[in-house]
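Table S2 (text version). Query chain:
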Amino acid sequence: MSQLEIRLAARSDLPALRDMQERSLRILGCHSYTATQIEAFIARIGTMDDYLVDDRTYLVAQRDDDILGCGGWTTRLPGYARHARNETQPTDAGRATVRSIFVEPLAARQGIGRQVMKAVEDAMRGEGFRIAELGATDCGLGFYRHIGFRPVTEFSVDLGDGIDMHFTRMQKTLAPANSDAAAPRSLSA
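Corresponding structure-token output:
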């Protein structure tokens, strides 16, 4: 078996990424959310914002030609935020938000999510960010706690038709990459 490669996502990856992300949410999320919640989230919010790829802050983990995981970061407002209740976004220039972490269900629990998160955190650290935040799904809470994130607050996303989806805002302090860390990069909204 070949080694896992983690690289920047390209626009040409979007169809395969969305297919894997939706499959992941449906299969790995089914113990935390109803099928109605999952399908409403996919239809109304989607699994990722394209600007993550355009901003060159989104990563793909693949082995051979198979996409096995993905994730990224941003300082931009997430697409789900306009539908969120009781949610606040980072305002400190030293913070960035981890976004759209997914693992292929057939490759779950093989360390791929951990490798993607390490690459995302390294990229954030390399850009000078001190704090990583994320909106964790209920099915991802245990994983994020295990890698050092701590709950800050809870919020829900209004999916319409009386359907909500619960999330937990989590935070982690990133150790500096080195003492010469660059000033954080802010992406346009």
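Notes on Table S2: The two ends are 41 Å apart (CA to CA). The beta strands are 5-8, 58-63, 66-74, 84-85, 95-103, 131-137, 150-158, 164-173.
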